[in-house]
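User: I'm curious what two different proteins look like when written out as structure tokens. Can you demonstrate?

Assistant: Sure. I'll show them one after the other, since each token string lines up with its own sequence. Here's the first protein:
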Amino acid sequence: MSHLHIAGGQVLTPETTVERADVLVDQDTGTIEAVGTDLDAAGAETLDASGGLVIPGLVNAHSHVAMTLFRGHADDKELDAWLQEDIWPVEAELQAEDVAAGTRLGVAEMIRSGTTTFADMYFFMPEVAEVVAETGMRARLGHGCISVGKDDADARGDFREGLDFAREYDGYADGRVTTMFNPHSLTTVFEDHFADYVPEAREAGMTVHFHANETTDEVDPIVDERGRRPLDWADDLGLLADDSFIAHGVHVDESEIELLADRGTAVIHCPASNMKLASGMAPVQEMLDAGVTVGLGTDGPASNNDLDMFDEMRDAAMLGKLAADDASAVDAATTVDLATKGSADAIGVDSGRIAEGANADVAVLSLDAPHLTPPHDLVSHLAYAASGSDVRHTVCDGQVLMRDRELTTIDLAAARAEATERAEALIERASES
């Protein structure tokens, strides 16, 4: 039996408090065996957390990670124009190897900033699953299914691909990959495709994840055409359930918040992307007060432009206060919970907490930086002051993926070089098409 002893630091508890403790990990099962002082760690490998804070590995609950290839390609535009003029034409030229390279670069970025789990909706998802397998991360993955811009046969082929991927890859990489069914959004999928494929996904027990209420341009046409709110319509389509989660939820009204709470459907808040694309301010505190599970995600690196969940926490706290017009809204502890327990619960993984029996997904932060001094309140520092560069070690499924800032499963220089080369070639192909 193999063990990892994370020793000498302080630990963020499931109650979002900090206490002096060590963590003993059973590496054979990938779970946390014990948390406390004076642990019996004879024979265990030691991971030094002296002077540091051990936190749950962060959970990026909504992303399109391979869009690292588009980072900085098309900035400072509103969502619809950005998608139609800049992103979709380039995505039409994507190759499987491009997605693998972009994902590997993004995974390296996430590991280096303390993220151990991500939910990803994109294309060429078998390649994404392979990167997850080789790098040691944990992920919930799904193929994004879209109707618009395709004839009916191609669109139906897209949905079939999404269902087939979800069936084939669930449990892949020794269980670190779980899957989901991803109709892209309420405005990019036709009603008959929802009607034909959502029931099949439900019958197969698949988690469903889709974009909803991100902008007023997504809400108003549904209200005008159907005379009802988007999520009310989504409920009739069978999209809302306790194993569903939506991305964004920026423009939800009180009735939709109540519906989300009643159905147990989670919302993934993506504050940086929502600010950059001027999509609006999600009513996060209102949703939390109503009992909605809220997680946190970066969205794609083309609309963020990074995958650092510490940045996302800070943005969530600040934007949440503005949205509520209340400086006490989305406080520090709540914000940290969004990126850990909230995100893990939203996407259905037993991570996001350091507790006996939970997945051994943890990160260790160094606390010796000027911006983390003095240590009045380490939870506050996590929400408002820390950054991904403060992460010293990252562990997923009990395996050390980064030790003393050195990645153990990725050749970072090679990943950067390949992603740069493929990104440049991709943009050139798109410009010539």
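Here's a second, unrelated protein for contrast:
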Amino acid sequence: MAASVLFCIITALNFICIAFAFDPRPLQDFCVADPTSPVRINGIPCKDPTTAKADDFFYRGLHVPGNTSNPLGAALTPVSVATVPGLNTLGLTLARLDFAPNGIIPPHYHPRATELLTVLEGSLEVGFVTSSPANVHYSKVLEKGDVFVVPVGLLHYQRNVGSANTVALAVVNSQNAGIVAVTNGVFGAKPPINRQYLAKAYLLDEKTISRLQATF
């Protein structure tokens, strides 16, 4: 009996070692994305590495301010595998965030990435909320040179609290972090979510729900 138990333990430990030995990192120097490939995989296929060129790893234009003349007063300029094919499989995405005075990015979350924010100019309030049931709100006003991290999958937001334009850099540790904008998802779903259900869920009347669905 003792021998069989010991055998099971050793077998289980071997499987654990195999699991920890799994290498999630790239298996080659690089994998320049080939968006024209007909192959469908979890990501983007690689093109022939012998055809790679320096421009596959290059982007110019992050110094150009984004257009904040929109209802949110904010703009996002991404540097992703779509603009830098050499980022494929490397698990990184960068974005420039521009905020007009009082500009905001509404509450949202990234299901597949942690976010690191650095303010380059201006003042930016950043906050996130922990999962239920605690729902603890952590927030900080960032000034030039300040850094703030938002853990993976948590609801967060940004807003310009200064009197001038604010510029920040955001980095996520995923090629495709995903973004779920809460209000857009709830009130902008197509086809729409049942109004009676939403009214009950958010303690609002159906008229308000209808107005919100029309807005989003």
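A detail about the second structure: Confidence is low (pLDDT under 50) at residues 5-23.
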